[in-house]
Amino acid sequence: MSIQPCCVKGFEWDGTPEGKAIPFPTASNQAYVTGSNTEAAVMLITDVFGWDFINNRLLADHFAREANVTVYMPDFFDGESISKETLKKDFTDWAKDGLDIMAFVGRHSREIREPEIFDCAKKLRAEYKKVGAIGYCYGGWAVCRLGAKGNNLVDSVSMGHPSMLIKEDLDGVVVPIQILAPEIDAAYTAELKEHTFKVLQKNQVVFDYVHFPGVEHSCFTRGNAEKAGELEAMVRGKQAAVDWFKTWLHPA
Length: 252
What we know:
Elements: E1 20-23, E2 30-34, E3 40-45, H1 54-67, E4 70-74, H2 101-107, H3 110-127, E5 130-136, H4 139-146, E6 156-160, H5 167-172, E7 177-184, H6 190-202, E8 207-216, H7 219-222, H8 230-249
Parallel strand pairs: 3-4, 3-5, 5-6, 6-7, 7-8
Antiparallel strand pairs: 1-2, 2-4
Helix pairs in contact: 1-8, 3-4
């Protein structure tokens, strides 16, 4: 499933990020890092608004504080991202409105970015006892790949309103996986949702499917706190992910 118009809609949040930018995984790359846990880390793979979008950084801060992990949010778009000014527009015709989203996706295709995403996960795996990953929109497919059979890169994953996800991604997952799923989602379709249930049960994978009625794709990272139900969904989605990583990255 490709990027949909809903993938570039939403709202910018208020707040001041607490983390910092560092070279990662090499001196030629960079990541936003927040938190101080030396044993448990989470990699956050963003939507198309990228690693420097304030909403993504504020969400990373919440995870670091509340799940007691160090969060790494790498730049997987080589310094490029969809402008936050896009959030103020109503995209009914991408070409007419000047957003060549398919060109962006082509420059940052799965084939191009997967090796880089794996390299970051390998570095975290070498440095931390427990590693998780969470991906929103664009990042959804990536966390499934990290949690696929034979990779041994993460201990658990979570994804919220995934896009670019295909059935084979779900087929390969073997680590505990959480799915944060808005009811209204043109990218994470009813067919993919049904396949999620069937294949994870068939493969006896531990999973947590959290349904959010009445809200749309992007609500967890670009939700409007003034819109009925979206603030509740943002809070509930954040808390669900926090609890998930507490469970799988801090075993009793």
